Amino acid sequence: xxxxxxxxxxxRPCRVRDVPRWDLDTEIAIVGFGAAGASAAIEAAGxxxxxxxxxAASGHxxxxxxxxxxxxxxxxxxxxxxxxxxFSDETEDFYQYxxxxxxxxxxxxxxxxxxxxxxxxxxxxxAQGVVYKNSFVPQRIVEPFTDDCLLxxxxxxxxxxxxxxxxxxxxxxxxxxxxxxxxxLMDALARRVQALGVELRFDTRAVALIADDAxxxxxxxxxxxxxxRYVRARRGVILCAGGFIMNKxxxxxxxxxxxxxxxxxxxxxxxxxxxxxxxxxxxxxHMNEGFVTLPWYPxxxxxxxxxxxxxxxxxxxxxxxxxxxxxxxxxxxxxxFWLLADGGIFKEPEFSEFxxxxxxxxxxxxxxxxxxxxxxxxxxxxxxxxxxxHAAEGRDPLFRKQPKWLKPLTQPPFVALDCRIxxxxxxxxxLGGLDTSVRGEVLTASREPVAGLYAAGRTSSGLxxxxxxxxxxxxxxxxxxxxxxxxxxxxxxxxxxDGT
Amino acid sequence: xxxxxxxxxxxRPCRVRDVPRWDLDTEIAIVGFGAAGASAAIEAAGxxxxxxxxxAASGHxxxxxxxxxxxxxxxxxxxxxxxxxxFSDETEDFYQYxxxxxxxxxxxxxxxxxxxxxxxxxxxxxAQGVVYKNSFVPQRIVEPFTDDCLLxxxxxxxxxxxxxxxxxxxxxxxxxxxxxxxxxLMDALARRVQALGVELRFDTRAVALIADDAxxxxxxxxxxxxxxRYVRARRGVILCAGGFIMNKxxxxxxxxxxxxxxxxxxxxxxxxxxxxxxxxxxxxxHMNEGFVTLPWYPxxxxxxxxxxxxxxxxxxxxxxxxxxxxxxxxxxxxxxFWLLADGGIFKEPEFSEFxxxxxxxxxxxxxxxxxxxxxxxxxxxxxxxxxxxHAAEGRDPLFRKQPKWLKPLTQPPFVALDCRIxxxxxxxxxLGGLDTSVRGEVLTASREPVAGLYAAGRTSSGLxxxxxxxxxxxxxxxxxxxxxxxxxxxxxxxxxxDGT
Lengths: 500, 500
Hints:
Two copies of one chain form a homodimer. Helix content of chain A is about 25%, strand content about 20%. The first copy, chain A, has helices at about 35-45, 80-85, 90-100, 110-125, 160-165, 180-195, 250-255, 270-280, 320-330, 350-355, 365-370, 380-390, 475-490; strands spanning about 15, 25-30, 50-55, 70, 150, 170, 200, 205-210, 215-225, 225-240, 265, 285, 290-295, 305-310, 340, 360-365, 415-420, 425-430, 435, 440-445, 450-455.
């Protein structure tokens, strides 16, 4: 029989009538073995479904394994670790924070469900073998060099977030010494996936969905060793194939401003999950949004500094999440940015090598610093003078940095930390993806489910969908929790028979 | 025969096999009788095709008729009107300007084709009966109260546009006394449509596309007098149904920041053209982008003023197109904005009633004005002092306003024109839509044409696709020119036979 090799495309479904044979028969086919795919597989297999997991790489992990492994958790009075640290995290505060973090089109239903079930999700993670140390890091950091757990990982204490939701630290990092807890997290989830008997097929790419004429998804065409294999998925297909940060053409079309950030965080992340979903009518939303950051703190004393653009102007309260500051940087005119500090607060950034953060200029007066940076005469000095005047009164009427971070910058030497966007390391990944229900069903533009198709993680548009609201741990929270929902929903779906 | 009334949806195509009967048989079905639909109909009928035009309203015009009728034209050495006014507009300059106006994902192929053929398009417009007076308005205005033609209608002379393209006025307004030249333009095009024997069906809504299983478009279901009618379109369907500014749910999902602007410019514009295209795999792009403006000038003397946000900061060179300033306003934190002027330049804005522009405060000193506006002490005054210091030297190193607009603001009384976004009239329409080829073919996510489907005007993403680059006349230029291309391409397409 002639093989329609290379004729398949992630842009077009293969119609059921064009399937030459079924090479594999499963109940649930999952694409991608990162945190979303692993969580979906665990729940689906745990519910008794036959699950096959396809991964383009040679092992598990995906982009989740590149992360710090931090998960944003709270509500219901707090996780044991939050409570030990003296925080009671009310569900309503958590919900309000998630809504703000999700931005002007937050998915209220997802925020609500997650706020209510996040504590149970913590317990689920622990049950999968993810270990958390009962410890809290009170300083503002990005990721612990230790094996500590609880962090302030967002903009909880900063304006305007603090006005709508009582602040609480919610970033939970696995007990793993040093950076890179994402690998630890993924190893734990992968062990569970294997223990549950999920069939794993590595080095296998999803090249097209199989659907009937009404776009009901019946399976998947995968390519293994150069050969197309036709996979029947009787209960459904779950796309957990990451975002599109490695696909420059898609970035150019959907989020061209993100090309200003120079360091994509991704493994495959070529947009194929999103494209597969679109091929059967799935609706991709918020494709212009992305996460971006420059870890310019810790040390947290630098938060007492002020960030300026090349007009010498401030543009944000510097006490928000570092990614919120970076998002605002991306939206400014020009490429040159500096964090201004004085001798009383300046210390070398902990990530100076990693992020290519260097001192751009140092001087005995702000006038001299302004001249060294070749900023317009009077620009930086006016900004500093105004900031100092208000900081001396314990307030920041322009951008509402909280009083604990306010201190007049008057002690020489004066330092400009160079945060240029064309030099420093700006990390980025995409937040746009397929619209999904709280059950992980892929939705059309009219928000009707595409029968038999689910998505989770960065293939979907989930809890994090607004760059200016991102907080560390939101993407893994979304991937693991809604990956689970997708796995459960698919497992409960009536299986299709042979004739369909 | 039972009628599947109300079962059709713009979100799902009606499959050919489900068509109960063909009520109408045409070669080209056009949806929408604005400038794009009219231009498509003229070219298609002129090429000998049978054309049926469906319009939801009771007459022609669409949102185009609400406009000033201005069309952005130039290149090839200039239109007769540009040349009479002393401007030679080189094609390369025009192309570079269109590229910048289109933003970071400008459609270079569309910009190139339009730059090269814009002069011929001018002649085509004249041949259709659109009359232009041979006159030029050198002052910076928004729309003439007279019957004059040529205007500076964009950011041509402003930084950064002026660095990439030699400035030239390109806004061509029809000879029509007063505002509202869009009605005159549409009347002229509609007369041609009628003269060419196009079948017109008013009060008729497109409710679904008709497509085969491969999503090849075969026709259209329309609703007339409460009854569904099945229209066979043998050469194709052209969607010219406007944007989605009247659809709040779509705005919320795709462009939530645009909900900050309070005055949509639209008639139907409910997104149905875009949704119909998506229902057969059409790819909607740049859905987050929109046009927004507040006509705070003329008089042009106000351009010598400075626009500030509620941090008391400037944020843009004020000599760009008014819509560019408004776009930046939309992206600032807060809702309060003012144009600051001194006694030497302040005159009442010509559109003060229309746009609800009022004086927010007036005072004998900037300090007093700052206090009256309840701005943080030292904020406005520092901004004015810095601006005046540089303006006295004939430069604006922060935002690069051009020297002709620079003048220290030192002559009392000092005035703050209130430009609050929650009070003044901010006009807005959407720029996101279906991706199309230069021939008007609707494209999938992989940029393959959807067979038999075309789109133009704001149903598509065309020349204008970036709010910060919009210039008056770009939307009508795009609608008329690429409407024509769609009409020509559909007319040349091989007609489908009865069996398909």
